[in-house]
Amino acid sequence: MIGYPILNMDYFFTDIHKYLRLLEEVIIHFMWKNFKIKGERKKGKTGVWFNVKNGKSRKICAIGIRMSRWVTMHGFALNVNTDLQYFNHIIPCGIYNQEVTSLKKEDISFQEVKRMVKKSFQEIFDVEFI
């Protein structure tokens, strides 16, 4: 699932790192609230991960943004039902020796995930989509 928020950060805050951390928080919040799955941050890396503390971390959500005049572009890619074998042919996010994972084990529709992530985004950013 690709999330591509376009926000004028002048209406929120003008801090790129804070924006990145809040995008991570949207996914962490979504996973915990709906599935009791603990998403984590990994020191020095952007995105959302599993099993950071036990040394077998796997990335479930990649985040990459751009801002121009404090208007956001790009966003996140959450692996919902992704065929993970495709990742065997690339180095995701330029990070070697790190696995990726997905929510595929959860029996849930893509539309339901979309609705849940949208709700988490609204809660974390304190906005209402129109």
TrEMBL record:
UniProt key word Transferase: yes
UniProt site positions, description: Lowers pKa of active site Cys: K59
Catalytic residue positions: C93 (acyl-thioester intermediate)
EC number: 2.3.1.181
Keyword annotations from UniProtKB, A to Z: Acyltransferase, Transferase
Superkingdom to which the source organism belongs: Bacteria
Alphabetical list of NCBIfam families matching this protein: lipB (TIGR00214)
Role according to the record: Catalyzes the transfer of endogenously produced octanoic acid from octanoyl-acyl-carrier-protein onto the lipoyl domains of lipoate-dependent enzymes. Lipoyl-ACP can also act as a substrate although octanoyl-ACP is likely to be the physiological substrate.
Protein name: lipoyl(octanoyl) transferase
Organism: Blattabacterium sp. (Rhabdoblatta sp.)
Phylogenetic lineage: Bacteria, Pseudomonadati, Bacteroidota, Flavobacteriia, Flavobacteriales
